[in-house]
Write a structure and sequence with these properties.
The chain contains 8 helices and 15 strands. By secondary structure, the chain is α+β, with helices and mostly antiparallel strands. Strands 7, 8, 9, 10, 11, 12, 13 and 15 form an 8-stranded mixed sheet that branches. A 7-stranded mixed sheet has the order 1-2-3-4-5-14-6, sandwiched between helices. The radius of gyration is 20 Å and the shape is globular. It starts with a strand and ends in a 10-residue tail after the last strand.
Length: 318
């Protein structure tokens, strides 16, 4: 039996995550954070669950909605136990598509080995995100492993910058790229301004580009992570001078960004380097810390979608 979860199912879902996903996972031990992430409106739990003949959960699929109708979503925590008489994982996926009448499903953090075949069966785009970084030349590198200290020069640029303290400060008529996931003000407010653990920095550049970052501390040092960018992506090359000064002022080692769907040239013009073109290590895992490069894969029902690490539930504490 497959159904949408209710609040009564949350303890069983958390136990399933603990026993079949990862022991000690934050969503298995912190109910408040679980509810922040998966109860977005009207006490609706954004999970579908499958139960076996003994009424025990044998599969789950969570999702993050971007709109009130839940027709634009990102999948998260998709796991099914081995079953002899059914393909539970596939059934959960089809249940969501049919019940929510989805217009777009785009997911960051895809495990290609476990779910890749299902995405390909439905003709989804499946790929690996680009990972860009830019060093602070004045840094003592304790997080990154830097063998190549190259920092591309950029043309001098000037932009007006305003730090937004509320989603309602986003200018009226702010234009979002047609290839990006459509995000409502309510989504942006909840995702970035009301996050219970992370403090995000939301900067508005020239009234037409929003860059969302957060500081990551580790090894008595700091890096700056770009988790989302909204608006006119052609303006990305204009942000670098500001962030170079920000990194220098705050003793930040480097800044980085995972992305798919935006031209490499825009990041190159902004003075960023793609990690595949470097000998350096720009870590992704901090809980616990691992000094190694990590690939993040994605899938999308819409080809050419623009995604960042902040989409879905990838950028969260563990």
């Amino acid at each position: 039996m497959i159904k949408f979860a209710t609040k009564k199912d949350i303890p069983d879902i958390m136990d399933f995550i603990e026993n079949h996903w990862k022991k000690g996972h934050i969503l298995a031990r912190n109910r408040d954070f679980f509810e922040y992430l998966y109860i977005t409106d009207e006490n609706r739990v954004n999970f579908a669950i499958s139960k076996d003949k003994e009424n025990k959960i044998n599969g789950i699929i969570g999702y993050i909605p971007y709109d009130k109708t839940h027709s634009v979503i990102s999948l998260a925590l998709w796991k099914a136990l081995n079953a002899q008489d059914s393909f539970v994982g596939m059934e959960l996926f089809e249940f969501l598509m049919n019940e929510l009448k989805t217009k777009l499903i785009a997911t960051v953090g895809v495990n290609i080995e476990t779910s890749g075949e299902i995405y390909l069966f439905f003709d989804y785009e499946l790929g690996k995100m680009n990972h860009y970084y830019r060093l602070n030349k004045n840094a003592d590198y304790k997080i990154a492993k830097v063998d190549d200290k190259l920092i591309p020069e950029i043309k001098s640029n000037y932009v007006t910058v305003k730090e937004l303290k509320s989603a309602h400060e986003i200018p009226v008529g702010f234009k979002y790229d047609k290839n990006a996931i459509p995000k409502t003000i309510d989504y942006i407010k909840r995702r970035y301004f009301l996050h219970p653990v992370f403090k995000y920095i939301v900067n508005l550049f020239n009234n037409d580009l929003i860059v969302i970052t957060r500081l990551q501390e580790c090894n008595s040092s700091k890096c700056l992570r770009i988790v989302d960018i909204l608006g006119d992506y052609n303006k990305i090359p204009l942000i670098t001078t500001y962030f170079d000064e920000f990194m220098k002022k705050n003793n930040i080692e480097y800044m980085d960004c995972y992305n798919s769907g935006i031209s490499n040239k825009l990041f190159e013009d902004a003075g960023f380097i793609e990690i595949q073109n470097s000998k350096n290590i720009i870590p992704e895992y901090f809980y616990p810390f691992e000094q190694r490069n990590i690939d993040i894969c994605y899938s999308s029902s819409n080809k050419g979608i623009i995604l960042f690490k902040g989409d879905g539930d990838m950028d969260r504490p563990n």
